[in-house]
Task: inverse folding
């Protein structure tokens, strides 16, 4: 929508005044791992989304308290037709290159996010059409009513259609198969910060967007962001203690006391919307990395149960995590609809029973297998895997640990090239359907993209799909409980714990810990 010259001049003067009166600050921010790509639809991964949120924006987003708030959409509602959601778009928004944001960009971006190479397509699996009504109105048409559609949009970023096409990025990067496109290294969003420079796994520099629509609405006290991934815990803490960085998202648990006792530094702690677990290839007839010919030990639920009770979650919490975790028996955190205290209960550690189950299954002498683990993604990820190796060794399972950076680890799961693996799962929709769509449903072009278990249950698939259109919340919750009963009884995954977040920052910073581990820097304030 075109604006008058007078309007543009006035808006420019207001923006200049706001920026000149704000405190000009460079935020030096570090965490263990980098964003995997700048293509906003190519990877459904926390640190990747976190960096993207500084430059791109979704229609709705979760603020620092985890509440859904307007972003590029100012209002949303289900229409008289229960299969159609209407979104009213923010007026006067511009992309970083100066182009106007309109409904065309929303239609293009959501369709792009549904393409086969997108890692975000499960979130839109119920969508039949994204329709432009006018420049500032979009309808999302679903196959049946979808009461949770707004929850699914908080990490679905909007791209400039013209810029994206001109740069040859019509298809999202096929990250699992080593695909590439120019949008992996360049951006053009509507967000509060503009990409200045990027060196993958080294440093990314962002500058404040002088034309941001949110000037006057958000603090925007940070005018430059220097984002540095530092994988080694000791190096990351050293940089923080020496004053080289101002904010670190992942203070190692062994260093919490040292950091919190250092003058000028603070540690802020909160439960995270994320659960850590191991996945098992239960579906293939034979495993690739074991020494059992012609059979799959993980296909026997007795072996899975033995492994589940051979893992001493209390010891992992006490020794590996230094108390900074919440052991669990289910692969969803307490934030999520469908969670119950009963599901959260984890099985008692019982080596004798585990050995008996192994013998019953015909594996009294054990077997060998490889465990794939990331070493730069989750809190103490490799150390947790090392602990599990020792615990499973007590029941005769000789585990070879293969720990890699997440950029090499995640494709193993996506491409189903691992038999036994660690994964952590956050739930941005705060609903069990998200877990089921990605981790339980049979792998198809639309669903099950992170289901490395190869598990397939057509009856369960039908129940999972029904959740997207069930408007009777009591009936929907009954279906969720029914699905969890099956998932738990099948022991598809070995849950370990819910993560606890520990953000370290200088005492000059006023910044709440966000439950999804997503620091939206536009909210950050400095203390007077």
Result:
């Amino acid at each position: 929508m075109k604006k008058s010259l007078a309007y543009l001049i006035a808006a420019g003067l207001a923006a200049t005044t706001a920026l000149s009166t704000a405190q000009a600050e460079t935020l030096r921010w570090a965490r263990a791992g980098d964003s995997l790509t700048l293509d906003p639809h190519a990877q459904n991964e926390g640190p990747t989304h976190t960096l993207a949120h500084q430059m791109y924006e979704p229609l709705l987003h979760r603020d620092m308290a985890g509440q859904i708030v307007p972003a590029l959409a100012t209002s949303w509602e289900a229409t008289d037709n229960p299969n159609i959601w209407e979104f009213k778009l923010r007026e006067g928004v511009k992309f970083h290159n100066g182009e106007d944001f309109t409904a065309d960009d929303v239609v293009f971006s959501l369709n792009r996010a549904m393409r086969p190479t997108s890692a975000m397509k499960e979130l839109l699996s119920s969508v039949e059409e994204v329709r432009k009504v006018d420049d500032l109105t979009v309808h999302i048409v679903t196959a049946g009513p979808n009461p949770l559609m707004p929850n699914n949009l908080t990490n679905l970023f909007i791209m400039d259609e013209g810029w994206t096409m001109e740069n040859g990025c019509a298809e999202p990067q096929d990250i699992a198969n080593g695909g590439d496109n120019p949008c992996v290294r360049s951006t053009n969003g509507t967000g509060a910060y503009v990409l200045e420079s990027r060196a993958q796994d080294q440093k990314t520099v962002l500058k404040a967007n002088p034309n941001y629509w949110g000037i006057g609405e958000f603090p925007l006290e940070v005018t430059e962001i220097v984002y540095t991934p530092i994988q080694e815990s000791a190096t990351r803490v050293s940089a923080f203690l020496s004053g080289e960085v101002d904010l670190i998202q992942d203070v190692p648990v062994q260093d919490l006391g040292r950091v919190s006792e250092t003058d000028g530094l603070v540690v802020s702690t909160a439960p995270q919307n994320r659960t850590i677990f191991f996945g098992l290839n239960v579906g293939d007839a034979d495993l690739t990395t074991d020494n059992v010919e012609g059979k799959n030990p993980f296909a026997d639920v007795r072996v899975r149960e033995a492994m589940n009770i051979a893992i001493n979650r209390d010891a992992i919490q006490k020794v590996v995590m230094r108390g900074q975790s919440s052991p669990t028996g289910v692969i969803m955190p307490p934030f999520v609809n469908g969670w119950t205290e009963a599901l959260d209960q984890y099985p008692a550690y019982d080596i004798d029973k585990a050995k008996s189950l192994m013998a019953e299954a015909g594996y009294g002498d054990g077997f060998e297998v490889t465990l794939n683990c990331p070493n730069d993604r989750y809190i103490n990820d490799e150390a947790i895997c090392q602990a599990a190796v020792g615990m499973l060794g007590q029941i005769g399972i000789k585990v070879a640990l293969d720990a890699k950076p997440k950029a090499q680890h995640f494709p193993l799961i996506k491409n189903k090239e691992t038999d036994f693996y660690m994964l952590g799962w956050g739930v941005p929709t705060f609903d069990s359907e998200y877990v089921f769509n990605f981790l339980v449903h049979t792998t198809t072009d639309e669903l099950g993209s992170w289901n490395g278990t190869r598990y397939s249950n057509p009856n369960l698939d039908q129940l999972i799909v029904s959740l997207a259109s069930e408007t009777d919340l009591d009936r929907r919750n009954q279906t969720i409980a029914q699905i969890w009963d099956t998932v738990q009884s099948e022991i598809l995954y070995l849950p370990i714990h819910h993560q606890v977040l520990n953000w370290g920052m200088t005492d000059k910073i006023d910044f709440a810990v966000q439950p999804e581990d997503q620091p939206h820097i536009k909210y950050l304030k400095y203390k007077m």
